[in-house]
Amino acid sequence: MAKKHFYAIKNTGEIYRSWAECQTALKKVKAPVFKGFATEAEAKAFLAGKSPTASLPSESIFVDGSFNADKAIVGGAFVLVKDDKSVHEQTIRDDKHTEILRLRNVGGELLATIYALKYALSLGMKEVTICHDYQGIASWADGSWQAKQDITKRYAAFVEQIIKKEGLQVQFQKISAHTGVKFNERADQLAKQAAEITS
After folding, report:
1. Residue 69 CA from chain centroid, whole number
2. Over the range 117-156, which residues count as b (16 or more CB within 10 Å of their CB) and which as e?
3. Ordered structural domains, the chain, with CATH
4. Is the pLDDT of residue 83 over 90?
5. What is the Cα–Cα distance from 30 to 83, expressed in whole angstroms?
6. What end-to-end distance do the CA atoms of the chain give, in Å?
7. pTM
């Protein structure tokens, strides 16, 4: 999850650059409405009442993963969004593969992304934006993070093949987790369901 560096309070219309500064302001506000954000742009969008996904293309796929430690189940999910509407949702569950289980919710994120890209290909899409809240989804794919485990190496190789051999243009868009982005929240909810997390 991305670290929060900006805090916005709707009641004051102000952005604060530290939690301590935000806390001080909160003491003076009745029934405050506030959130923390990784970027100033997200904080400004929140104050303006704009959707953080407003800059996304009309067709995007949101991915997320979850892990049920009690039952040792990895859950993944993706939501295909077109013109701000969910047009396809899919869940993935894995309770057999040790390498996936070892990665916990990240394993679910990887599975969700792989299945999402396969689905995009099946639709004949020429380009797709994968919206994710875990940085490794983009960074292993573009090589800015070194893939050290077999599964992350295979993931990076898969994305490379999708781009180079299948001709699918893949873009990655980082979305801050749990900041009210409805399709990101929906993917999170579905991933939890896949992992049999009920609470």
Report:
1. 21
2. bebbeeeebeebbbbbbbebbbbbbeeeeebeeebbeebb
3. 4-46 (3.40.970), 57-193 (3.30.420.10)
4. no
5. 37
6. 20
7. 0.72
